[in-house]
Amino acid sequence: MPSRNRIRDWRRLDDESLLALRFCDLPLDIRRGTVARHVQRLHRELAARGIEFEPHVWFGVEWFSPDGVPGISVPFYLADPRLKRLERRMMHEVEGGESKWLIRILRHEAGHAIDTAYGLRRRADWRAVFGPASRRYPSVYTSRPGSRRFVLHIGDWYAQSHPTEDFAETFAVWMQPRARWRRDYAGWPALRKLEYVDTLMAEIAGRPPKRRNRRRIEPIDQIRETLGVHYRRKLARYDLTDNRHDARLVRVFATPKRRPAGASAARFLREIRPQIERLLNRRARMHPYIIEHAMTAMILRAQQLDLRLARDRRRSKRDAARLVGLVVLDVLRRNREHSAL
Q1: Which range, of 157-161, 233-237, 260-264, averages the lowest pLDDT?
Q2: How far apart are alpha carbons 214 and 207 in whole angstroms?
Q3: What does the alpha-carbon distance between residue 162 and residue 89 come to, in Å, rounded to a whole number?
Q4: What's the confidence (pLDDT) of residue 305?
Q5: How far, CA to CA in Å, does 106 sit from each of 56, 99, 178, 204, 208?
Q6: What's the whole-model pTM score?
Q7: Calpha distance 55→111 (Å, rounded)
Q8: Is 328's pLDDT higher than 80?
Q9: Beta pairing class for 56-60 and 71-75
Q10: According to DSSP H, which parts of the chain are helical?
Q11: For residue 320, which of 299, 290, 289, 341 has the smallest C-alpha distance?
């Protein structure tokens, strides 16, 4: 175990030494930094809607809003760039690691916290719209990417997994400043859910929450487990391999054996992501959500395979755009197959 003097300089530790630290050894402050600024933004958005409730936040191991506690656990790795780098090395992505992604997840978790604070899931009209919150959470759910019964927000068609997630995702879409959800979801059955949330939030605006407790569930300053143990368990829990498109990826990019000195394909895809998404949105006129899903899958798999650029950047960008378009079509094809079952 590193000495206390070294722990004060924990950002300078190599990965193996950092993994040997306990969570409670990390001196993280939720009141400062990027997360604090985004939480303040969330609170301003709630106030602008007339909602007299501010969910409290703390650093935990994972994203969640606990049952019975109107607050939000934010994963520890978002506290510092050094921890983000470790998370990316171990898990190949950093959930909430970008500003747009972070505020999206915070709005989603705020939906859960508001549900708890005002006891919304107990209402008969809430259950009529979203279903019973008592429904068992599935260990795995089969999504239907083409379904219009659910809003599209944080990723993986998460609204389809459970009634409480359906509400949290619907709330998050409604919550976005200057959102044009009436236009974006015109003709979708999901519009009825958004209109219900709009009515429900107008009803609770100006009302104090019923539940106000400020408990923190599993905060990292009380966890004596090491980061190494945490990541071993997390890796065992998640299957990070989706090799459906490996052959296509390797045709566009190169393996480390072929191009040992080549630039990282994953980094290149992240750089050109906005351009590809704009291009496919304009050409294919598909919902941006599906294109974002395909881009995320490609970046994650390129990083797992440690792929490299095989050609010049211009040709690589063209080939990558074509590949993402094929992945989008594959997602929609699998949706049609599920719908036919």
Answers
A1: 233-237
A2: 18
A3: 31
A4: 87
A5: 11, 11, 17, 20, 21
A6: 0.76
A7: 10
A8: no
A9: parallel
A10: 4-7, 15-19, 34-48, 81-91, 99-118, 124-130, 163-175, 181-184, 190-204, 227-237, 246-252, 265-284, 288-304, 313-340
A11: 299
